[in-house]
């Protein structure tokens, strides 16, 4: 029999063993589907409605007029923002990326003069070009952006009303429009995922990696019953034996993602107003899914090869997957993590798979734009398979 003949026979045997384990099939498909459905609905209000807190804000003051001083004093008094001391060498992008501040506000040169001209005209003339400039962190979601914009606008209005009283007792005729005095400077090109865009790929990856439980149980059953020993005595290439453990579960991983995708596209819209947006290049989801499934299966083989008992493999495998999922942004969105934990998340293979999916969903990424996370996942799979192959050979 040829190599592919051996591989086909061994894969059929592995698939038959998996299908007979109904609890494993239920675990691999029903559990993540319920997670996608329930958590997407539960996170809908959290994503759309947040309680505001004081934002750390970096100020760049290029205007030395009296009106600028009054505005800064008003902002400090309102308590909506925490002013962060920064170095002049740091650019706004650097401040926002390293987490030093969540927003950057610049009072441009000529701001006080523009405000004076505006007050002299009693609000009947445009404010001018020297508006207050602000930029929010890409991770800052819509409610906080609205809070930032409205807070700045109200502080500006308060400063104007406090600084000018007409001799006749009249106030300026001011439109209460946040865009009257403000100008947003970039920072809004990195949209946040919707609850479905967050949960569908996240729990799909979780299900793929959770394959460690049935795979390790199957492998230890073969070792205990002597099946694996008998197979290795036949003139079958050891690479075919190893691949027979990978290919069936690779197919299972792809089916898991299709199942979660169906839940997000067809089931969730029936019970809520949410719908899953796949981006402009949905075909890129195919290589992402296959590479993620390969990394998951390779990790399952690695755990099974290192463990001494089936119970040990199941316990360690399940616990490690939960930890990797937490770090990888599945259970806690990556943008909500502190900067230090965001760096630790790079160690989780689930992070790279999740980011590849989000790039496809949110940024219409092509295959070339997701090559980096796919290469990381592929390298992780190769290293895991190499170690597992050596251990199983022994």
Task: Name a few traits of the molecule.
394 residues
Structural class label:
alpha/beta
Strand portion, in percent? 5-15%
Q: Write down the secondary-structure element order.
A: HHEHEHEHEHEHHHHHHHHH
Distance between the termini: 25 Å
User: In what order do the strands lie side by side in the largest sheet?
Assistant: 2-1-3-4-5
Q: Into how many domains do the coordinates divide?
A: 2
Poorly predicted parts: 48-52, 166-178
The helix tally amounts to 15
Mean pLDDT: 77
Radius of gyration of CA atoms, rounded to a whole number: 28 Å
Shape designation: elongated
Number-wise, the strands total 5
Describe this structure in words.
- By secondary structure, the protein is an alpha/beta fold.
- The chain has two domains: 3-47 and 193-393, no CATH class; 55-140 and 142-184, abc type-2 transporter like fold (3-Layer(aba) Sandwich).
- It has helices at residues 3-20, 22-48, 66-78, 92-97, 111-120, 142-163, 195-209, 212-225, 227-233, 238-271, 285-306, 310-327, 339-344, 349-363, 371-393; strands at 55-61, 81-84, 103-107, 132-136, 182-184.
- The protein has a five-stranded mixed beta sheet.
- Mean pLDDT is 77; it is low at 48-52 and 166-178.
